[in-house]
# Entry
Amino acid sequence: MQPYSEHMKLDNIKSIFMNIAAHADWKIAIGAGAWMFDWIFGVRQQAVLVVGLLLILDTATGFAYAFKQNNVSSKGFFRFAVKLCVYFTLIVTGRLVDKVLPYQFAAPVMESFLAITEAISIMENLSRCGFAVPVSLIKRLANARGDRQIDPARSENNSGKP
# Structure
């Protein structure tokens, strides 16, 4: 048996691209998808990545809380998949609305709303796990999001216990 080599890795990559190149329908689909992604997101992809990272952090901190409560289930991960689809739809909607407006308005508002929502959820999850969190920041973010009141039971646990 031959040891693994860089040449074998390159051959595998080359064969993948050759298989894609052999199928015109795949080339068209990949090209159209890349063009559509670039047309929708353009150079402002950072906001999408930030919201995605916040969504992952929210899921991780939610998992930590569920683990602490001995209540881990697949429902939480299914919720992550649903949120991912909903958030992507909302971001794309904001970007498409901005395509017809004379200035960008919808996308920054949508992305800010989603980022604030996830930041609040992350801090609430950490608070529930017993970590100290800036409750006043949670309240200000909730106020910026348009919440009239936040549930004190969800965010007032500011015990400072790690």
Q: What stands out?
A: The chain has two domains: 1-41, 43-155.
